[in-house]
């Protein structure tokens, strides 16, 4: 059964249960209300009769002369003498009076419903003044008359319920259709994602939580599309990066095998082959590292790191290249900063960014570390040409390298490590030096979130 049919069936069943329960409760309450109202009317009628009789007759002994008057009232009543426990007068026949007297206790003032055969009667007592006279006027109304009113009311109520239920079901169909239609359309869009038809994706008009789901599905499709494109680009670039040194090695190897090169060229060719093999080895090692970062995020050895000593170590490693290129490397750590992270991985990430800055700097590189709102910031800037707007969006993609780059994997590795440590890395233009600026922000404790194994 479709979701819309299930929702409509559930709503209709719930509506029937509620309306049936409400109808039964109202049906029983109506009779109680009618009985109370009838007793009130009988009391008013009886008070009027008593008032009239009191004006007409001054002596209680004369109450026996009111038969003709009461007969003219077209009421079902008894004139009861409590002192004598007898009915002095009734508008009903003597046989009916006797049956009433046998089936009911006239002396019980608390009983408001009397029985006569299979019929029941609502009663109301009105006492003559003075009370010592023991005279009571007992008025009766058949409960069947009230049931007729009850049934007539319930019949009209049933029509109201029926019309209301029909309107509710129509409204339910409209609302569920409005609710389910976006889900059905969303299902079709998910099929497009499954079939990788990202260019055919369409936005769906919806509201509330369904709109949030639709937005998430759309963003997911965009992310998947970008990921698949990046994977295609990755394999294309990877094949190109691996193919070039392999072709160089193959060319020199075949030339040496066939004796084409003389001794000098052979020695040169061997040197080139060794260089290209080392380059291949470096590319492969970095590809393996990236694969491990993606597939084994739980291998995380968190230690306490003194940031000043950490930066000093990076500067010491970079100093030979800095001196060789006649560059100025400035470092500054604001205060005493400690961070909890995987030192080996963090060293690899920061070193990659620093050596990237050295590669493109003209004269100066700056490393600035500071703490702000429980976050540690590493700002690495250079005075080179900077990063173009076109390259900013893909600077951290794999095998994307600028002029003078080596493997094109260094910044991709840095981003993977920083993100694995619950941090962020950004690239932009340096306002201070005019070149590129990379900012890495990490929490004070960069332990990965979730159920990940931490080696200690």
Defining key terms:
single chain; 456 residues; alpha+beta; Beta-Lactamase; Helix Hairpins; Heat Shock Protein 90; 3 domains; 5-stranded antiparallel sheet; 5-stranded mixed sheet; 56% helix; 18% strand; rod-shaped; disordered C terminus
Describe the structure.
This protein has 10 helices and 13 strands. With 456 residues, it is of the alpha+beta class. The chain folds into 3 domains: 3-150, Beta-Lactamase (2-Layer Sandwich); 208-293, Signal transduction histidine kinase, dimerisation/phosphotransfer (DHp) domain (Helix Hairpins, Orthogonal Bundle), CATH 1.10.287; 298-455, Heat Shock Protein 90, CATH 3.30.565.10. It has a 5-stranded antiparallel sheet with strand order 2-1-5-4-3. Strands 7-9-10-12-11 form a 5-stranded mixed sheet. A 3-stranded mixed sheet has the order 8-6-13. β4 (119-127) and β5 form a beta hairpin. The longest helix has 54 residues, at 3-56. The two termini are 54 Å apart. The model is unreliable at 449-456 (pLDDT under 50).
Helix and strand arrangement:
Blueprint: H1 3-56, H2 67-71, E1 76-81, E2 86-90, H3 94-103, E3 113-116, E4 119-127, E5 135-142, H4 143-194, H5 208-257, H6 263-295, E6 300-306, H7 307-324, E7 328-333, E8 338-342, H8 343-360, E9 364-372, E10 375-382, H9 389-392, H10 410-420, E11 424-429, E12 436-443, E13 454-455
Parallel strand pairs: 6-13, 7-9
Antiparallel strand pairs: 1-2, 1-5, 3-4, 4-5, 6-8, 9-10, 10-12, 11-12
Protein name: histidine kinase
Main location: membrane
Catalytic activity: ATP + protein L-histidine = ADP + protein N-phospho-L-histidine
């Amino acid at each position: 059964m479709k979701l819309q049919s299930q929702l409509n069936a559930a709503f209709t069943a719930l509506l029937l249960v509620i309306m049936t329960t409400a109808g039964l409760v109202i049906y029983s309450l109506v009779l109680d209300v009618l009985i109370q109202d009838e007793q009130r009317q009988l009391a008013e009628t009886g008070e009027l009769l008593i008032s009239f009789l009191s004006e007409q007759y001054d002596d209680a002994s004369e109450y026996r002369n009111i038969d003709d008057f009461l007969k003219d009232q077209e009421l079902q009543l008894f004139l009861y003498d409590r002192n004598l426990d007898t009915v002095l007068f009734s508008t009903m026949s003597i046989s009916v009076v006797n049956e009433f007297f046998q089936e009911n206790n006239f002396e019980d003032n608390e009983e408001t419903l009397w029985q006569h055969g299979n019929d029941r009667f609502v009663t109301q007592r009105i006492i003559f003044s003075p009370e010592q006279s023991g005279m009571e006027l007992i008025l009766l109304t058949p409960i069947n008359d009230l049931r007729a009113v009850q049934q007539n009311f319930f019949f009209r109520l049933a029509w109201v319920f029926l019309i209301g239920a029909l309107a509710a079901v129509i409204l339910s169909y409209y609302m569920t259709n409005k609710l389910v239609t976006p889900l059905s359309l969303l299902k079709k869009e998910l099929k497009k994602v499954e079939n990788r038809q990202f260019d055919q994706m369409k936005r769906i008009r919806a509201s509330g939580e369904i709109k949030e789901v639709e937005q998430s599905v759309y963003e997911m499709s965009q992310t998947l599309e970008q990921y698949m494109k990046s994977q295609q680009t990755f394999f294309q670039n990877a094949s190109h990066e691996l193919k070039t040194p392999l072709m160089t090695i193959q060319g020199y190897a075949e030339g040496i095998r066939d004796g084409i090169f003389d001794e000098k060229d052979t020695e040169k060719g061997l040197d080139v082959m060794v260089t290209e093999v080392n380059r291949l080895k470096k590319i492969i090692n970095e590809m393996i590292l990236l694969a491990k970062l993606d597939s084994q995020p739980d291998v995380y050895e968190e230690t306490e790191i003194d940031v000043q000593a950490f930066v000093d170590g990076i500067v010491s490693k970079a100093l030979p290249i800095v001196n060789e290129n006649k560059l100025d490397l400035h470092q500054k750590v604001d205060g005493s900063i400690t961070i909890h992270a995987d030192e080996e991985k963090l060293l690899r990430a920061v070193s990659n960014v620093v050596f990237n800055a050295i590669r493109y700097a003209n004269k100066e590189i700056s490393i600035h570390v500071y703490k702000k709102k429980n976050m540690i910031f590493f700002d690495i800037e250079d005075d080179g040409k900077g990063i173009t707007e076109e390259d900013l969006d893909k600077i951290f993609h794999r095998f994307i390298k600028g002029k003078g780059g080596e493997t094109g994997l260094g910044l991709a590795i840095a981003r993977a490590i920083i993100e694995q440590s619950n941090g962020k890395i950004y690239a932009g233009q340096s306002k201070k030096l005019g070149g590129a600026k990379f900012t890495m922000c990490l929490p004070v404790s960069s332990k990965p979130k979730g159920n990940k194994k931490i080696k200690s």
